[in-house]
Amino acid sequence: MLNQIKGLHHVTSMAADAQENNDFFTKLLGLRRVKKTVNFDAPDVYHLYYGDHVGTPGSVMTYFPFPHIAKGRRGTGEVSETAFAVPEGALDYWRERLTAAGVGGLQDDTRFGEKRLRFPGPDGDGFALVEVPDDSRAPFGHGPVPADRGVHGFRGVTMRLRDGEATAELLKFMGYQELARDGALIRMGIEGGNGADIVDLEVLPDAERAREGAGSVHHVAFAVADRAAQAEVRRALLDAGAHVTPVIDRDYFWAIYFRTPGGILFEIATNEPGFDRDEDVAHLGEALKLPDQHAHLRPQIEKTLTPITD
């Protein structure tokens, strides 16, 4: 069993409209946009990152907004819900805030003893706010949401699968342990993790498979401290028979990818070097940053991308 992984690093999804996506996360959920860059493989598409003040691993939601992308279809073989941690007693505030903003489909529930408020994103994304007492992570306190009601980071994700056992075994290999079961749900967690350390497996054997599109999670990334830890994880995964990519430089972290038995794309990302490697912390997410291989295309890229109004 590995011990290098400490929880989630980031979750990357797809959207249809960059401005709508930006407004949802910064103006409604109160996260900070910590980076405005482009998709490495499609530089005519933004890659937007939202998180806490510095984009701490375990707090960062990222998006590829593809104009005119078809809406995704919910189903098995995907991350179906991303859950954010909020302070105990904050759900009343959030219910009123989301309702006032016209967000429909709000659902209150309790999962493994935790109070939750579920809601859809602009593209039908599945989200939940979870009351987590004594979460020591600091929310971004300079946006529209008061710090004492703000998002601390991820609580975790839900993966919807036809068969949960193979993915559960993979997560155990990655350092997770089974914490509880309730009907179709299996809760996995990491002891002493980074706070974003819960993965729920929802097993629905007869459900149809998901179809990727706007509102779909593209991949979920798990956090390791540095490249040395990542190399250890990569060797162990290869030895276990996983098909793992070479290490890829993503400017703000180093990444490796592999596909799970349930069809979900996993990434292992380093906590280094961080989002302040090319911007001062006071100005994170303000300027359009381009990977070196696309820097010569800046005039063309700036003409192609629709400007985002903050």
From TrEMBL:
Record's keyword terms, sorted: Dioxygenase, Oxidoreductase
One of the Pfam families matching this protein, by short name: Glyoxalase
PROSITE patterns: VOC
One term of GO molecular function: dioxygenase activity
Domain called VOC: residue spans: 7-132, 153-271
Protein name: Dioxygenase
